[in-house]
## 1
Amino acid sequence: MCGIVGYIGNNQAKDILIKGLQKLEYRGYDSAGIALVNDSGVELHKEKGRIAALEDAIGKEGKGTTGIGHTRWATHGAPSRENAHPHQSISGRFTLVHNGVIENYQQLKREYLADVNMASETDTEVIVQLVESFAEKGENIDEAFRRALSLLHGSYAIALIDKEDNDTIYVGKNKSPLLVGVGDDVSVVASDAMAMLHITKEFVEIMDQEIVIVKQDGIQVKKLDGTVVERDTFTTDIDESDTEKGTYNHFMLKEIDEQPFVIRNIIQKYQDDDDGDIKLDNAIRAALNDADRLYVIAAGTSYHAGLVGKELMEKVADKPTEVHIASEFLYNEPLLSKNPLFIFISQSGETADCRGVLVNVKEKGYKSLTITNVPGSTLTREADFTLHTHAGPEIAVASTKAYTAQMAVFSILAMDGARAQGINTGFNAINELGLIANAMETLCDQKDRMEQVARDYMFDTRNCFFIGRAMDYHVVQEGALKLKEISYIQAEGFAGGELKHGTIALIEDGTPVVGVTTQEHVNANIRGNIQEVIARGANACIISTEATKEEGDNIVLPNINELLTPLISVVPLQLISYYAALHRGCDVDKPRNLAKSVTVE
Ligand code: AGP
């Protein structure tokens, strides 16, 4: 969702901020802006739409070596120039950008700002007006900023500049991600380290309800009560080239192609150098062993990975497991077991719905594990344990490599759980993952074939159904999500046997139905379901394996362990979605209305 950048250094800030904002484009946004402090005061530029529109509007203007920037994903107030950040206080002295949601902004307006004419419909504007009103009453800026922040209920990452001081950016954070970076005579601010890798790799983590006074030659971290906090820097291991498209036209295709490497990377990271077997932290192993039931909490694609994870935990590690959509669990908690372990799956590690659940379960004293692709993210910091998916930065909004990495990490967790209990699973996760990486490579090499399937089934359709049974049911839900989010084709994934209980009414002449059949024990059943839709005019596309194939199937996957087939059967679905979206002229990497990191509930 919204992205924040800030810079204080010896160079002109404009291009650095714009480059930073471009690196944050993946998060999703509908307007963008920057503000620069220079000798004549503060220069403010903001525009609705893409960063390119902002750049055009700035043109040759934009002077100053201190500045802040923002990409906005609208929550309070429509996407418009007026509602775009930065926002300014009435006198123009303070300028601020914000990511998050201020729940009590109406109340604050009534109580403290009744005589202030707001320039926007946003919740954000109250913050900058509060700072000004406290500063006018004689508080120094540090105090005024901390006082304003201590009144806020909700989530925020904030950067504020003062027209009268071109060597300070005030930043604050609560529940929304924000980092401060330090370099040689330069300091930066960013929602995500990758936005400022062109300036520094050294960052400082900010905790909730802390502020940082950022100056060119150093920073000071404080709690909201003014107590100074000492904090070490860390060096991020993200490589700048990981955040570039290279020779690809889209991040999504690059990330699909990276999947074999990601799986091999996971093998390396989770393999014990001594005996070549899986190596998990002892504390995680113990927590898993002690739990009487696992509760997997996630959203979207990560939820789909959780569905596969549940199967693996139950079938391989004999561990009762439930999977819940985070936003549902948050307000409609099921009956819990006596000794649960909560597993949060989140590519970004920032999803607000997941965090809401984590806060609640921590209050109750339950143990938690985060499976994430972003070390240092909020869910990582707040859970008891973390397993990293090691997929490298995922920039396309549509999750691909993070999804397969999540399932791979689940397979390791399940194998380790089985071993800890002395269960003989009959397979070795490390070997199987090696075969999976090879199979993914084979599938990624068949792009022409995938494009042909997209052409034959998806190029002109209004809707599309995906069906599968057992493990395949989980994958078809992900296939449908992938297609709808980037191509805007209405797509749904169903359990094969469920169609005739209602959905089959939607099948007409030419309706595309993708049937996935990788599970031998239900191969005949799903093929029966496919015949039922063909009999009603459906245009059926069948994805099978060497073990389940029949003549005429469209795509045949290499044989791997049946339980792990979701890791490879999703690859053609990702590629077909990609080509369908491409053909339909959609913005593949940045689909409309969507954000990569969903930091509001
Ligand atoms: C995936 O393609 C989606 N864009 C989306 O469903 C995503 O998986 C979901 O928002 C959860 O995000 P997370 O993994 O960062 O928690």
## 2
Amino acid sequence: MLIKKPGDIRYSEVTPKAVYFDRRKFLAALPAAFLAGRELLSPSARAGAAGKFPTLAKSPFSTTEKENSLTDVAHYNNFYEFGTAKDEPFQLARNFKTYPWTVSVEGEVAKPRKFSIDEILKLAPLEERIYRHRCVEAWSIVVPWAGYSLSALLAQVQPTPKARFVAFQSYYNPSEMPAAQHAGIEFPYVEGLRLDEAMHPLALLCVGMYGDALPPQDGAPVRMILPWKYGFKSIKSIVKIRLVEKMPPNTWNTMQPMEYGFYSNVNPNVDHPRWTQSSERRLGELRRRPTLMFNGYADQVASLYTGMDLKKNF
Ligand code: MTE
């Protein structure tokens, strides 16, 4: 992905090589206090999302693969509003105020409305979904997220027949996110899905991970998780969801259309122009493993794309 000047420094290049390839060295360099699990959630995030979730239903969509640790996942992030290096968001987002929080759901809907984060937390039973999550940079993680299908939220506002796509927008305030001005991408961060993708049960409206509220660096207090798509589709810290008629813009496609498409389904047969997508490295492991079509979720989602040329619609 691209930072600073278009066509200049890009996404995978912002990660220092030593950090990218030697995760343990990276962790050893961090102050011990930052590594303690309880340090990972800021007080603001805890206050808003009411701390630990007492009951989380198990999901049939969960993988049985070994989970990454909270420490790994919460110290290796892409959240350009809080810096472009993987270890920056957990430091620079520490005081990000994520409560109170409101998400406006609007556009082509019969009942537009604003939802407080407390309303979102109560809208449907929270499930724990252990998903594989594959970044376009070819690293992957396995995370127990908490949330429920986005379809439960969309049902509340009743999309009209004109609604064909869903446009998402992240929170942006330059005074709270001074690092954003050096990120080289436009803010607010935006993303989009076709309505049938957004309504798919795997599309998770996510409010937590590891049984607790989301840490700010992981997109508190509410984000998307789309396990069959590259990680950049999983937009963080959402403030607006708009149902629309036409395909909405998404940040990385706007910045670099030849490299990042609208669909961005995980596809080992379509390489990124600058690197292979046929294999990946799970965070904490050295060996590479083969990347699976739709990140291993083909049985559930392949039918969404029947008849489409996935090389063109990448
Ligand atoms: N959302 C916002 N608002 N800003 C971002 O920079 N980065 C994306 C996505 N969502 C990003 C974002 C990218 S590139 C990835 S890989 C995932 O978040 C990373 O999520 P994680 O840090 O929880 O692993």
